[in-house]
Each structure stands twice: as structure tokens, then as C-alpha cells.
Design goal:
heterotrimer; A alpha/beta (329); B alpha/beta (327); C mainly alpha (313); B: 327 residues; alpha/beta; 35% helix; 23% strand; C: mainly alpha; MetI-like fold; 0% strand; globular
């Protein structure tokens, strides 16, 4: 398909969580690895919002970090608009870098407290040498206006703004290099709901205006439901289901997706009876063999405990579960 | 009507700072009935946690209760000496905080902490206390409670730890449990379990709950009544179903519209413009007036008090002032 | 980068007066007294050539007959009056203190500057890069911390003198002293900066800069450094007091500055020889000056630490 903007193939990331060398020698411990992501593959099409949902330990932020080059994948590759991303190649990467940006979770940490807002927003412009002198000032004013702040705010420092306003500043910074693709890592989870609505609406408007493509990382299913075209569900570092957003919520295929949907508090007070959720997420250093979800799964079969299920095409996308296989192996 | 278990009257909490006194809670009044779950919602900085802290007498200095009264079953508790207040905390009011690690001492086993709490507040033997502790852990859903009771807090996962905290809060069979964002640090799939446990066990023991959270979904599933705080003042209070499905205060209805849900289909969320004022810049009149779509002149000068509405609801909004409507 | 500074901002003094630090300062009598004493001594030292009544290092202006004049008493031979008396060679103690404080402060400031630049640079690198560079630097720091700083300074001083031709020793002595004290103090800066850097580098504003490919050196200089300077200023202030005392100790031991350029430490060493023969003032006044200087600078550092610590506010 030609309209794929970003594709990820077999992405795996292991973290060395061993004790220091000396302790290992003395205590005769083995090296320990935490597999944050294993064999994750998906594609993001131009102009869509692809969301990754998962709970803690699902590795969703690790994927985001690998895509923007903050972490190196242990295995697998990332293609951006057809080109393999290689963060160690200077010049080629520099051209690619301008085309993607990231919005972070915590607007109180993502803006340097000692910089003026104008300088914060102008940093990508200066780094990529897109403009000079007075043009930068005008551009920053335009960007501030675009995200619903005023051009005079460029003179202020981050601490003079509320959380929602800071996230607007972070969005203005992300837009300043005129990227096509923005990774949004839990962009509203540090914000209050009424402010969250403003930011989500703003992100939508900007997407419509500039044809942006989003990768949205979130633990909040309602936010994902509201924003995404397609959704990938992660559990313990593996993609268990990828599906069209609307259909995922109507017809979840993987038992974990179903459980996750059932766990969302019901604001509509519809009184729907929910299957009680059981168990907790296992320690990712020592995940269960086979399907990582099997200890919590209501439909567990013997094979689930032995072999990791491969992704299977479903009516709504694909999912990794033996229940969905035409004939259970 | 029976006497409420907890009654808060015109509570004012202030923080003296070098640039003047900040009023973090301004004349907050509400009751919690016997066995009732009252949800307390609001955005960060609205004063919901402060309300809880003021009730249990654990305001961080320089914060102080400047005026108002807090009554627990007919006994005034806001002016008690420190020692007496300490005995009420734990014995009559249990607490569950957001981060289970702050309420559990990492240096002692769960058994030691539970037994100490039980024996501090109740006259039972050591073995009896242990028996109760195991039963309690079992009740909050810790598997193999009799064995795991001798583990240290760090041996438990986040969700299990929060269960232990709930057990600890209920150990002395308090009349009221104040739960401050008990599930915020937890994953969604664990959150639902914890809420269920908290709700069931309090119902079983007839304890009232004051559930402080920013999550309307949690309130909807758990609370009987809900109080909505805005900029340190109560905007609205009433039965949870009424408030969620037909909010009266413009802030509450804006808030409800801004929450994305799994069933809604609209492309854009309703949004309230602007953000909650900082404590040093609360506008005159109704604190919500600069953001309110229905604002009129009176809102900008005169502060609305809670006005009684049908079905036991109260709302602090001039739109509902009968006298004004008659004019 | 001054692009976005507003044109009509209130002047610097007005803003400084209104800041939290200034407010805390105005409400801390101890800090005010300490600052006054420090400023007074520093000013007097800087202005020594203009305000000292005598030039104690000009042999032509010295009169041996003025030797051992007690304070506030006319000399029995010449009738000259000295506020703080004179030493054995007839030098005015007040003037020697002014000139001595000048040397002490110069060595102190330069040593702190040296330690700061070295410590900050290594701390930033260790904290940001981590890995073996970090491990190596921090083990060196650990080893160095097991020696008393003064011992280390003595060692460095000794080694350095061995490499310098005798003719240049006196001229170089002061610089050797600065390097010796600076090298014995860099660890404090490096450790604090490393710790703060490890916290800052994981903050999202640094990640945001990394995503757009900002060069690591620029990230360290423009993003991280300004955010780790708070604790560094605290150590620098306390470090100044330490450096002044270290210099005094070395000079007292006779390995510091040459007697032709006496510092407060040298003066104390000279003075203690006369204590038991009754000429107490030669020892007492330089000692009081050193004590007042070190104490007030130290108190300022303590206050600064508290004022910058949001948890104690």
C-alpha cells in the first residue's frame, strides 16, 4: 500500500535490568532482561490516528520512544515513508527528523522552566534552520495563535501557564517544524477532563487543517475511542489485537480487549452487567510462557500455556488468540 | 431525618502566603449519611483532597481551618486537641490514599501493621488481632491471606497493596472511610476490582465513604450522592444519577459533556473555555462566571450560595434562584 | 536567544527585589548580617591599596622602631598610633589584614571557580552519558573523597612544586595553591551536578530536544546546565568558605603563599609566634577576620540552601 506513512516490523526491545557486574559475580546471579516489546508490527496510514492502548508494562511508551529515536530497537525496523529509519546516520536522519514530532505526557516537565515560551517553540525552527531573525518571531506568534494562545505569550515563562495552556505550547512546538507525523504519548493524562476536551478538540482541528498523522499512546479507552481510526491493543509488550476503532469497541476479538472494555467505568449508568475483571498484570521480567494473558483468560486452553499465538486475520483486523483460529490447534 | 454521620458546615481552609491569604476552601457545607457513599469530584486544585485532609485534621501547614465546623455523629471534631484527633483517625475515620506506598510502612510486615492498628484501637489479644487481620485480608481479596500476611509491602503488586491499605483502613471498624483517589495510580483492569472491594466491604460493615476522585466514571459506579467542587466552593450536590444525567450547574454539565465515553459518537467534545482560576485570582461573584455560557450580570458581582432543589439536590447558581425568576 | 524577552519588562532591580529569594533574604536577619559582614570584608580587601593607612610591603615606609606597638596606644619611641597595633617589623596590622584578606579571597574565589568549572563539566558528562565514563569518574571521586581534602591539597602542592623551577616558585605559588585547593574540591560539584543531570536528562523537555536532534553539547549547555545551577551555587558559597580556610591552613603550615605576599593564614602563622610573649594583637585580629569571613560566607550558603529548597519553604 502506498499510503502507509509509518510501518513497524518485528519491533523488539529488551532492557538489561541485571544487577551491576560486581553484584552478579558475588551473588552468582544471571543477567536479567526485561522484554518491553516483542515482535510488534503495525502500519500507520497517512492522515489517520492510530492508537496504541495498554496498561502499565504493556510497552506502549517504549514503542513511541523507539519510533522517535529516543531508544534503539533491539530487533526489527521502522520505516518512515518508505525509508528505513537509522538514527545513527547523521545527514539522512536530519532530513527525516523534521517530518515527525512528539507531544509528551507531562506539560510541567516537557517545557524547560528556564526558557521563554517563544524560545521553546522556536527551538525546532532554529535546530532545522528553517527561518532566521524576525521571521522566527512572526512564526512563533502565528503558532501561538493557532493553538489558542496569544502572540504576546512568547515573552512569558512556562510557570505562568496552566497545565492545559502548557500542553498547547508543547503542541505549538511540535508543529513548528511543520511535521507530517506526531507521536502523542498520553497527551492528556496529566490534565483535568474539561481541559482534556479542549486539547483533544485542538488536536482534531489541527489534524484536519494540516493533514497530520497521529500515533496516539494512551491507557484511556474512552480517549482512544474518541480520537482513533484504528487501534492496537498491547499486553505485556505484545500486540494482541489490531482493529478498526469503531468495530473494536462493538466487537472485541481478543479476550483481553474484552476485559479491558469491561473494566471501563460506565458513566452512562446503563446498568450493564460486566464480567468481573480478575487478576493483575504479571511481572514483565518473568512473563508467563505461551500467551502472556493465559493466567487471566476465562477461555484458557492447554495450548495457550505453551506456544505464543500468532496473529490471525479477523473480521475486524487481526488478533493473536487461539480462540480465533479456524480449527483450534 | 436522622442525624448525619458527618456534617461539614461552612468550612473555610486558608493558606497564608507572602502575597496574602489564599482561600483554598470557601464555605463548604455537606453531610454524609450513615452508610452512604459520597463522591467528591473536582479538577486538580478544586480543593477535594483538602476537604478530606481538613476532616481528618491532617492539613499540611501552613494550611489551616480558618472557620466552619466539622461534626462527627454529633461531636465537633475540628477543634479537638491533637491527641484526641489522633484517636479518632484510624478508630472512627479510616483513610485510603492514592499511593499505597505512603500509607504502608515499608519496614514492617503487613501483619505487624494490621495487628498494631487493631490493638491500638480495640481491646483484643494478639492472637485474636491476628485472626481478625487474616480474615480482613481474605475479605479484601488477598489470595492465601494467612501466608501472605507476613510479607512486606514491597512483596505485593500495586493492586494488592491497595487492597492491604483498604484492610488497614477498615481494621478498627471505622464509621467513615475517606478514600482519596484510591484508584488513580492503578491500571484500569485493577481499578475496577479495587472499587468493587471498597464498595462491598464498606456496605457490609455499614461504614460511610467519602470518595475523592477526579474520575466521574468511578463516582458513577460507586457513589450514592456526588458533590462537585469548583475553585474551593461547592457547585452542586445531589444524588449521583440526577447529577450525572441532568446536571444543573453549568460547570457540571460542561464537565459531563467534556468526558469522552465509549458510547458517544459526536466528533467533537463539548469544551468549557479557559481553565479553573488559580487561588490568587478567583473572580468576584460566582467563580465560574468567566467560563459560564449562561452568565448574567448578577453572577459577576454576587456569590451564589447553595440553593435547595427538588429531590434533595442543591446547586450554587443564580439560574435557580426563585426570587430572581419571579421578578 | 534574547529574541523573546519583552521590551518593556520591569527593570532588573525591581524584579530581583520582588523575587522569592529576595523575599526570603529580607526575612532572614541572620542572612542579612552575614551578607553585610561578607560584603564589608570583600570590599575592604578589594579596595585595600586605596583604603589601607600604610603599605605594609614597602620596606621604605617601614620603621623598625614602630615594632610591637599595641593597639590604640601611641608607640613609645615614635609616638605613632596604630588602631590594631603593629607586628615585629613595624607593619600596621590593620593594613596587613586588608592585604591578607585580598590574597585569601583571591585564592578562594579562583579555587572555587576552578573546582566549579571542572566539577560541573565532569558531572554533566558523567550524568548525561552514564556507562563506563560515569563509573570511572565516580570511582575516582570516591577514592578522592576518602582522603581529607587538605591532605590532598598538600600532596598536589608538593608534586607541583617539584616540577616548577626554584626561581619561579614564589611567583607560581599562588596559582599552584589555587589548583591544589580546586582539585581537592571538584568532587562535590561533580557529584551534585551528576545527580541533578541524571534527574533532568529524563525529563521530557530534554527528550523533546533529543527528538528534534539537538546536539548533546547544546542540550547540556542550554537545557540541563541552567536547571542544575541552583544546588551548585549553594555548594559554591559554602565552598568559598572552605577554600578560604584551606588556603589559611596551608599558609599556616607554611606551604602556601610566600611570606612576601602574606594571606590571613600567613599572618596567623606569624602571629602565633608572639602570643606567649604578650603581643596578642598580631594573632588575634587576623584570626577574627578569618573567622568572621568564613562564618558569614558559610551562613550565607546555609541560608541559600534553605531558600532554594522548596520543601523547607
Amino acid at each position: 500500500m502506498s499510503d502507509v506513512l509509518l510501518s513497524v516490523e518485528g519491533l523488539t526491545r529488551r532492557f538489561d535490568v541485571s544487577k551491576p557486574w560486581l553484584n552478579r559475580v558475588i551473588e552468582r546471579d544471571e543477567r536479567q532482561f526485561l522484554t518491553a516489546n516483542a515482535d510488534v508490527s503495525f502500519e500507520i496510514r497517512k492522515g489517520e490516528t492510530f492508537a496504541l492502548v495498554g496498561e502499565s508494562g504493556s510497552g506502549k511508551s517504549t514503542i513511541a520512544k523507539m519510533i522517535v529515536g529516543l531508544l534503539e530497537p533491539s530487533e526489527g525496523q521502522i520505516r518512515f515513508d518508505g525509508d528505513v529509519m537509522d538514527f545513527n546516520s547523521g545527514a539522512a536522519m536530519r532530513r527525516l527528523r523534521r517530518r515527525f514530532q512528539m507531544i509528551f505526557q507531562d506539560p510541567f516537565a516537557s517545557l524547560n522552566p528556564r526558557w521563554r515560551v517563544g524560545d521553546i517553540i522556536a527551538e525546532p525552527i532554529r535546530t532545522f534552520d528553517l527561518m532566521k531573525g524576525a521571521a522566527i518571531r512572526n512564526e512563533v506568534g502565528r503558532l501561538l495563535d493557532l493553538v489558542g494562545l496569544s502572540a504576546t505569550d512568547a515573552e512569558k515563562f512556562p510557570h505562568e501557564f496552566s497545565g492545559g495552556q502548557r500542553q498547547r505550547i508543547a503542541i505549538a512546538r511540535a508543529l513548528s517544524s511543520r511535521p507530517e507525523f506526531i507521536v502523542c504519548d498520553e497527551p492528556t493524562s496529566a490534565l483535568d477532563v474539561s481541559v482534556q476536551a479542549q486539547i483533544l478538540n485542538l488536536m482534531r482541528d489541527l489534524q484536519d487543517e494540516f493533514g497530520l498523522t497521529y500515533l496516539l499512546i494512551s491507557h484511556d479507552l474512552s480517549v482512544v475511542r474518541h480520537m482513533a481510526n484504528r487501534i492496537g491493543v498491547l499486553y505485556l509488550g505484545r500486540l494482541v489485537e489490531v482493529a478498526d476503532a469503531k468495530r473494536l469497541f462493538l466487537d472485541p476479538q481478543h479476550p483481553y480487549t474484552r476485559m479491558l472494555l469491561d473494566a471501563v467505568p460506565d458513566l452512562a449508568l446503563s446498568g450493564r452487567r460486566r464480567t468481573p475483571v480478575t487478576g493483575e498484570i504479571p511481572n514483565p521480567i518473568n512473563p508467563p510462557p505461551g500467551c502472556a494473558f493465559h493466567p487471566r483468560c476465562p477461555h484458557v486452553m492447554p495450548i495457550c500455556k505453551q506456544v505464543i499465538p500468532p496473529p490471525i486475520e479477523t473480521a475486524t483486523g487481526r488478533a493473536a488468540c487461539y480462540l480465533l483460529a479456524p480449527t483450534p490447534a | 431525618m436522622a442525624e448525619p454521620l458527618l456534617s461539614v458546615r461552612d468550612l473555610v481552609v486558608e493558606f497564608p502566603t507572602r502575597r496574602g491569604v489564599l482561600r483554598a476552601l470557601d464555605k463548604v457545607s455537606f453531610d454524609i449519611a450513615e452508610g452512604e457513599v459520597l463522591g467528591m469530584v473536582g479538577e486538580s486544585g478544586a480543593g477535594k483532597s483538602l476537604t478530606g485532609a481538613a476532616i481528618i485534621g491532617l492539613l499540611e501547614p501552613p494550611g489551616r481551618v480558618a472557620s466552619g465546623e466539622i461534626w462527627l455523629r454529633g461531636e465537633r471534631i475540628d477543634n479537638l486537641p491533637r491527641e484526641k484527633m489522633r484517636r479518632i483517625r484510624g478508630r472512627r475515620i479510616g483513610m485510603v490514599f492514592q499511593d499505597p506506598l505512603t500509607s504502608l510502612n515499608p519496614l514492617y510486615t503487613v501483619a505487624q501493621q494490621l495487628i498494631e492498628t487493631i490493638r491500638t484501637h480495640m481491646d483484643v489479644s494478639d492472637s485474636e488481632a491476628r485472626k481478625r487481620a487474616v480474615a480482613l485480608l481474605d475479605r479484601v481479596g488477598i489470595p492465601a491471606a494467612a501466608r501472605r500476611i507476613d510479607d512486606y509491602p514491597h512483596h505485593f503488586s500495586g493492586g494488592m497493596r491497595q487492597r492491604v491499605v483498604i484492610a488497614l483502613a477498615l481494621a478498627a471498624e471505622p464509621e467513615l472511610v475517606i478514600a482519596d483517589e484510591p484508584t488513580t495510580a492503578l491500571d484500569v483492569s485493577v481499578q475496577a476490582q479495587i472499587i468493587d472491594v471498597l464498595k462491598e466491604i464498606c456496605a457490609e460493615r455499614g461504614a460511610s465513604v467519602m470518595l475523592i476522585t477526579h474520575d466521574m466514571g468511578v463516582i458513577a459506579e460507586t457513589a450514592d450522592r456526588v458533590a462537585v467542587l469548583y475553585a474551593g466552593r461547592l457547585a452542586e450536590i445531589g444524588p449521583v444519577r440526577d447529577v450525572i444525567q441532568a446536571a444543573e450547574h453549568p460547570y457540571t454539565s460542561g464537565l459531563m459533556g467534556s468526558i469522552p465515553t465509549l458510547t458517544q459518537t459526536a466528533d467533537r467534545l463539548t469544551q468549557i473555555p479557559g481553565s479553573m482560576p488559580r487561588l490568587n485570582a478567583i473572580p468576584q461573584g460566582c467563580p465560574f462566571n468567566p467560563r459560564c455560557p449562561h452568565v448574567f450580570d448578577r453572577c459577576r458581582v454576587e456569590r451564589p450560595e447553595l440553593i435547595a432543589r427538588p429531590a434533595g439536590r442543591q446547586v450554587a447558581c443564580w439560574l435557580y434562584d426563585k426570587e430572581a425568576q419571579n421578578v | 536567544m534574547a529574541d523573546f524577552a519583552p521590551a518593556d519588562r520591569p527593570n532588573f532591580l525591581a524584579r530581583a527585589w520582588d523575587s522569592d529569594i529576595a523575599w526570603s533574604f529580607r526575612h532572614s536577619p541572620l542572612a542579612i548580617v552575614a551578607a553585610l559582614v561578607s560584603v564589608l570584608i570583600i570590599l575592604a580587601a578589594v579596595l585595600a591599596p586605596w583604603i589601607a593607612p600604610h603599605d605594609p610591603f614597602n620596606p621604605a615606609s617601614l620603621n623598625l622602631m614602630d615594632g610591637f606597638t599595641p593597639p590604640m596606644e601611641p608607640n613609645q619611641f615614635t609616638g605613632n598610633l596604630y588602631w590594631l597595633g603593629t607586628d615585629n617589623q613595624g607593619r600596621d596590622v590593620f593594613s596587613t589584614i586588608l592585604y591578607g584578606a585580598r590574597i585569601s579571597l583571591f585564592v578562594g574565589f579562583m579555587a572555587v571557580l576552578f573546582a566549579m568549572v571542572l566539577g560541573i563539566t565532569l558531572g554533566l558528562i558523567a550524568g548525561y552519558r552514564g556507562g563506563w565514563i560515569d563509573a570511572l569518574l565516580m570511582r575516582v571521586a570516591d577514592v578522592q573523597l576518602t582522603f581529607p581534602a587538605i591532605l590532598l591539597a598538600l600532596l598536589i602542592f608538593g608534586i607541583a612544586r617539584g616540577f616548577i623551577p626554584p626561581a619561579m616558585r614564589d611567583a607560581m605559588a599562588i596559582w599552584v595553591l589555587i589548583v591544589a585547593i580546586g582539585l581537592s574540591e571538584w568532587v562535590n560539584y561533580a557529584r551534585v551536578v551528576r545527580g541533578a543531570t541524571m534527574v533532568e536528562k529524563n525529563k521530557e523537555y530534554v527528550q523533546a530536544a533529543r527528538v528534534i536532534g539537538v546536539h548533546p553539547v547544546r542540550i547540556l549547555a542550554r537545557h540541563i546546565l541552567p536547571n542544575v545551577m541552583g544546588p551548585v551555587l549553594v555548594i559554591a558559597t559554602i565552598g568559598l568558605a572552605l577554600a578560604i580556610i584551606a588556603e589559611a591552613t596551608l599558609s599556616f603550615l607554611g606551604v602556601g603563599v610566600p611570606p612576601t605576599q602574606p594571606s590571613l593564614g600567613t599572618l596567623i602563622r606569624i602571629g602565633q609566634g608572639f602570643l606567649f610573649s604578650g603581643e596578642w594583637w598580631i594573632l588575634l585580629f587576623p584570626s577574627i577576620t578569618l573567622l568572621a569571613l568564613a562564618l558569614s560566607v558559610n551562613l550565607l550558603g546555609d541560608w541559600l540552601r534553605d531558600a532554594l529548597n522548596p520543601r523547607l519553604r
